[in-house]
Amino acid sequence: MIPGATTNSYDPPxxxxxxxxxACLVDPIGNPDCGTGTWAAGCRKLQ
Length: 47
Fold this sequence. Notes:
By secondary structure, the chain is mostly loops. 0% of the residues lie in helices and 9% in strands. It has strands at residues 25-26, 38-39.
């Protein structure tokens, strides 16, 4: 888990010296639990 990446958006720390790709596993929670965790579709390249 990436520290600080616990909401629906995440801004990586500044000073990255290379591009990175992050995968996101989405687990719809609630009452009742809406389903099982699935991988988010698509990706975003961070530079």
